[in-house]
Amino acid sequence: MPLTRVTLERFTAFTHLSLDVSPGINILIGANGTGKTHLMKVCYAACDVSRSGIPFSEKLVRVMLPSGGLPGRLVQRSVGNRSGTATVHRGDMKLDVTFSRDRKLPPGDKDSAWVAQPVQSVYIPVKEMLANAPGFRSLYAAREIHFEEVYKDILDRAYLPKLRGPIDQSRKRLLESLQDVIGGKITVSNEEFFLRNRNGNLEFTLLAEGIRKLGLLWLLIQNGTLAASSTLFWDEPEANMNPGLIGTLMNFLLELQRGGVQVFIATHSYVVAKELDLRTKDGDDLMFHSFHREENSGEIVSSTASTFHDIDPDPISDTFTDLYDRQVSRSLGGLE
Length: 336
Description:
Rossmann fold
């Protein structure tokens, strides 16, 4: 069962948020500091604990990394707020935790029904990790290093070996399409990732970051991490990627959604949002969630639309339109 709603009360940047989400693709847009990444990390933590059995509170601290590991620092910073709550729903099931500024990690927040129906999930952070992979997991396990756990988690998923048995046709088609784009297959040797083609193995440190991201997607599809009923979270998939490849990537995400994968992406890119909008077919399920601060209260609020055209407010299109208007003005020599 996919995620259906997330509710945040006095949690990090949010005073109050109750957001219904799509079982298909959820596109999160908004200015910096409006909580898009925080929202995805809350949802990812809830998915991950369904398989790992780690308490929700502990996983949230690991993926959000408040200073000193103090869970109370996840409570919204405003006068009078002493506690904050995060709740994630999957239909009738829910997982919630309340953090207090005055207490350490809250105990006993496991949920047996939630764990009884686990969901495979993956969170792809903005920073590409495969080129820096050798030795990272052992260092993370042995030392206190200041990295959110999502960086270790994505390597855990990438290192998984190929699934046993024949590959289904939909995954085979996606893998072959990705191979055409990146020019080969991904292999691993001594914790180092390579792109293998007819010329041999090319290490990831010598590849463009956009190709590395597509290579990661290839690995996650090949090893079954991204399969039906799984959930993908991707923070700024457009980062360091040639705009010419973004349409291809968005098409892959739409295909994953058609295969039963729930997708969350946070983006600042007009190209990402518009490519998804233009490539959508009948039967696809997309929701655009716009986050902004109210002018008077400063609180973060959200609005949801099923099409890119209906987003309001839409800071991405507003910026793009402003650029276009200024270009036209300059071309006309400043004439109205």
